[in-house]
Amino acid sequence: MTAWALSSPAVLLVLVVAITPSLILLYQAFRTPDGAAFTLEHFERLFNSRIAGQAFWRTLRVSLITTLLTIAGGYPLAMLIARSRERAAALMLGIVVFPLMVSVVVRAFGWIVILGPSGIVNQILPGIGLITEPLALVQNEIGIIIGETQLLLPYMVLSLLAVLRNVDPHLEEASLSLGANPLRTFFAVTLPVSIPGLLSGVLLVFSLAITAFATPQILGGARSPMLTTLLYRNVFSTYDWAAAAAIAILLALLAIGFVTLQRLAGRLWEKSHG
Amino acid sequence: MADIRPKSAKAEMLLWSFGRVLFGAIGCLWLLFLVAPLVIVVAVSFTSANYLMFPPPGLSLQWYAEVMQLSWFRSSLISSFLIAAVSTAIAVVLGVLAARALSKRSFPGHMLMEYLVLSPLLLPGVVMGFALFNVLVLLHMEALGLPNLIVAHTMITLPFVVRSVWSTMAGSDASLEEAAHSLGATPLKAFRHVVLPTAMPGIVAGAILAFTFSFNDVTVSIFLASREAGTLPVELMADLEYSANAAPAAISSLMIVLMLLLFMAVVRLGGLKAFVNH
After folding, report:
1. In this structure, what CATH number is given to the domain that contains residue A92?
2. How confident is the model over A237-272, as pLDDT tens digits?
3. Smallest Cβ distance to B219: which of A11, A109, A213?
4. Mutate to test the interface with B, among A1, A22, A190 (most CBs of B within 10 A)
5. B124 within 8 A of A22, measured Cβ to Cβ
6. Domain annotation for chain B: domains and CATH numbers
7. What phi and psi, each to the nearest 5 degrees, are found at residue A187?
8. Structural domains counted in chain A
9. Which of B16, B38, B107 sits opposite A102 (nearest CB)?
């Protein structure tokens, strides 16, 4: 009883400001425009719309490639940090974590300066004769993928680090001294131990990639809408709020699904290895 | 000492150490990838040119002087500070109380309370932002920029405070509080003199994370910001579409420096554990 009394201000805030507005949106997504009856027309319209279809597949494609890239970067970084001496490890961990505290707008702008039409890459590469035409690296999926990879790599590193810290380095040494080459050692010793961290990292990064907004808005532009930026456009440009509500329900389902999967995976792992 | 290992083993050792160097180099390249956008933004902010170019033709502080004159920068900076400070203060009070409740072991609905209090983390920012905007329009309250933003930011930062404080409370010794009770302290006294001091590092770290999250948020804020109360990241994002000069770089650099200071404070307080545990 006292526990609920203590937490009542927080619970009240969440009920009024988070839960109720979400339920109202859910209700509206299933109402006819005049509010008289229940309908699935907004969802049908969404599934039949070419631009929404493109945004849906682009969202999945970009999120998948981003997740794969964070795995490619996550393993070397996490292993480097796990194997380094305390001071070097703390410094590298700081470099990995600090970008999380910097506004996503600032980070996306940094990529515009680097990758934009008059950005660093497009000034240096023609200068040394590698390209003649400027490369289109922003306002398309490449820009979104690069931006989201930088955005989400820290989460993958932290997830992998949590499990790699527990790998006994002697195990790897033993494997190596018994004649297994480094690659085989990685696949036979390191990878199996890191599976739970990899799994939770993948689910986390993928769901954050699907729901990222400012990065695709700045680096993808109007020509490559994702589900989140399409929702925003439906609210403020085309004023199709019913469609926006349907996209919101789709995004919420995806996000809740992934969080549930992550919890489930974590619990299953604890049960089998607890 | 004579090496008695066969030649092939020696070659393998060489290959292995080469592999390690290569591996370290790949890791360092990824580190570079992570900091590149931040470093570049700071570097170009000192340009003396009138538009963004690299390398800068000369160094100057002109863009810092320039942005100080921008009225939208000054007003949105003040809004952002105000919103972040007030919503953090409220979130800390509500969050400490909720964390105290959650750290009590078993009571009916523990799981439900945990889900409720942490639920703002569950929904995507665009969904939360649109849902709030939708309700505010229904209530004809969408023009009240500042109070709307403060309430919304209190809600989205609450989980950060709860998790941070809860983890320090869960780690602290419950018997201390019991001792205080048995020595005749009222629950309020025990809370003030025993529970609160031990939870303080978690409270401060949670407050810094909440402030940071509020100060940086664009996804929810972009739906709620009015013309009078635009936050700094929202205004910066709008400005990026129009300006090709180094003003956004100077503003970004100032934001990076502010975050670096807060980051160092977090590291001082509890090391990097606050991040690693999440």
Report:
1. 1.10.3720.10
2. 888 898 999 999 999 999 999 888 888 887 877 776
3. A213
4. A22
5. no
6. 70-276 (1.10.3720.10)
7. -75, -30
8. 1
9. B38
